[in-house]
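thread from #wetlab-drylab

HS: before we spend reagent money on co-crystallization trials with magnesium ion, can we at least see a predicted complex? here's what I'd submit
DV: go for it
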Amino acid sequence: MKRRLAILGATGSIGTAALDVARANAEDFDIVLLSANRSAAALEKLGAEFPRALRALGAADAGSRVSRRGREALLAAIGEAGADITVNGIAGAAGLLPSLAALRSGSSLALANKETAVLAYPLVKALAEDMGAPVIPVDSEHAAVFKLLEAHGRDGVREIILTASGGPFRRHSLRQLETVSVKEALAHPTWNMGPKITVDSATMANKGLEVIEAVRLFDMKPEQVKVVIHPQSVVHSLVRLAGGALYAQLSRPDMRLPIQEALYWPETPPTPLGVLDLAGLRLDFEAPDGERFPMLPLAYEAARLGGLYPCAYNGANEEAVNAFFQGRAGFLDIPRVVRYVLDRDWGGELTLESIAEADRGSRELAASRIGG
Ligand code: MG
């Protein structure tokens, strides 16, 4: 029987990859919902291709804050679609409520929106358990860890090692980083992604968010989640067992692979996408530099402090990245703004209200630091 598939953020890089997988496996999936933020024309085109799918446009406004009208329309459509599985490829904190709505509708969640885990995973997990609906990570590193933990069990795992490409500025000095342009920050060496996440890769905020994501998804202590720079992006992540042995997951850097695995989980059908050839492959690893890339140590700090600190880290970063895009902040202002925001007290219980409050508060504080 065909599975009913919803794709949120259908015109973005994750959505496009998910649609590729769905097209290649049309006998297995019926697309029941497609949503996009601003790409009305692209969504309409998809509507012509998948005429039976519901469409929702305008989940977020230009500042990536969820606008009420668009948000209500999207949440209603998620409830109405009755999907079996939902791919959430929405960028930023705007993805949280759609994740919850999908789970509440009884759908499984193939999660590419890392903010859902960073901001609110305890709430998401409780709802998923109530609904008996699994959350399957799609972020390539977490998809790899998810499979590795399935294979090795989690009891004997000493630590998780997330790989990071290092982004386009891996070799830049602090002085060079001070003056990099938006255009330079958008030229990612291995992954072709949306603009916000590409800048996050360049600052390593993306890896910072992924550290918090891993802590929350896999119930690890922050010190059990390590990061290693691996420019080829072929090893997606590793686990180290108590005995010291390392196990890695390798594949070509192609987001369709983790998406396909999530869509078929717990099965693993043979892939039509081609496999990695080991011959001639070169794999490099090096330690990340927290001095040139302070967004990484700041993320560990937020993870250790817990509560609403991860939410403040994310909100401040989203605001600072927007300011960078608009030419109101330099590249290194991004960690400065986040440092400033994290110096406030973000302790407290995780509820949807407190998360929304911390999200708003951290953006306002960041905006005040950035100024005019
Ligand atoms: Mg990733």
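DV: Residues 3-137 form a domain with the Rossmann fold fold (CATH 3.40.50.720).
HS: ok that's useful, forwarding to the group
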